[in-house]
């Protein structure tokens, strides 16, 4: 760490991404370094490193006394860097303005593997431009250390900001832009084309994104093997409402290494889209199609082709799924650990029986709002799924205290039980608590506490 003091101090650093009413910019020198207080917008401020000394004797004396009282300055460099590693990007930039030593430490490359910006008012496009420019100081136009960019909820992010990331961050491995509804397909295509190591992509809530693919130029350059060049393994497209089967086909053909895929509330997806998915993406371990109302038992037959690789499946509120679809999953996906089937009103005790007898390693099950599941189904669970840790039976009208007692007597590792809006007695809840001491019970019975 001895070479930290040799870093160039003349390079301006992006300081805290200040809100327009920040007291540091209302008067004095602070107001002369910023023009954003006039426009009222929040941007990444650019500042030179702090001065080495203060000229006025009284100020020097006060600074000396303050320095003597600052025990944090006695920490070695490696300890300071470790502390700084827990700070978000804007706070790290604030620390860079404290003194010369903190400036050097705050810009240590080890602290800049991740950029994390949040807030609806941040001019995130400009912030990314300023930050990447500073990080490209030692390697012009290329930021080799940056691996993760998280700008979730920054609604002012546009394609320009993603272009900056794509051009400057070839080593990017993780990108999260959830809730940034101004970005389009073209910008996402640029990122996946110019960042070949990208493995984790979260575009949930980005309503303009309809698929994931390489740019046309990249496709031509990498043809005919370009379909296997996108290394994305984790893809979250929750609330991408305009995603259709054709878009899912494109995603599957280009992202063949997918292991985690979340399509919650992608309401236009049908069984045909799932068929495309299973043709190309045979390594999926976690899949969510919750609230995809056009997915039916035929889609479950396609998903069952994942066989023992599938560990997590969410089909909540898919009203067209019945015991037939559950039977496909239970027969072929024997290593399933998590199943969310809340609101699938076509599931009965027979479906739960198939599931319990074939997926004995099940740890988490949500069958809330399934009115046809009764104590009989719970008995099958209790006698086969001894490793069950989480069970949700919310609004299951046919469940009684007797079924809960059977579960509690056999599933000792139960840690969470949801029986809200169920007609169960206080004695049954006390029985569960007595046998499953670590279990947290969510209920609506005012007599049990």
From TrEMBL:
Matching InterPro entries: F-box-like_dom_sf (IPR036047), F-box_dom (IPR001810), FBXL15_LRR (IPR057207), Leu-rich_rpt_Cys-con_subtyp (IPR006553), LRR_dom_sf (IPR032675)
One Pfam family, short name: F-box-like
CDD domains: F-box_FBXL7 (cd22120)
A single BP term in Gene Ontology: SCF-dependent proteasomal ubiquitin-dependent protein catabolic process
UniProt subcellular location: Cytoplasm, Cytoskeleton, Microtubule organizing center, Centrosome
Transmembrane segments: none
Keywords tagged on the record: Cell cycle, Cell division, Cytoplasm, Cytoskeleton, Leucine-rich repeat, Mitosis, Repeat, Ubl conjugation pathway
Pathway annotation: Protein modification; protein ubiquitination
Start and end residues of each stretch annotated as Disordered: 1-39
GO CC terms of this entry: centrosome; SCF ubiquitin ligase complex
Compositionally biased tracts (Polar residues): 1-13
Main location: cytoplasm
Limits of the F-box domain: 69-115
Matching PANTHER family: F-BOX_LRR-REPEAT PROTEIN 7, PARTNER OF PAIRED, ISOFORM B-RELATED
Family per similarity comment: Belongs to the FBXL7 family.
Subunit structure: Part of the SCF (SKP1-CUL1-F-box) E3 ubiquitin-protein ligase complex SCF(FBXL7) composed of CUL1, SKP1, RBX1 and FBXL7. Interacts with AURKA; interaction takes place during mitosis but not in interphase. Interacts with BIRC5; this interaction allows BIRC5 to be polyubiquitinated by the SCF(FBXL7) E3 ubiquitin-protein ligase complex.
Function: Substrate recognition component of a SCF (SKP1-CUL1-F-box protein) E3 ubiquitin-protein ligase complex. During mitosis, it mediates the ubiquitination and subsequent proteasomal degradation of AURKA, causing mitotic arrest. It also regulates mitochondrial function by mediating the ubiquitination and proteasomal degradation of the apoptosis inhibitor BIRC5.
Protein name: F-box/LRR-repeat protein 7
Organism of derivation: Penelope pileata
Name of the coding gene: Fbxl7
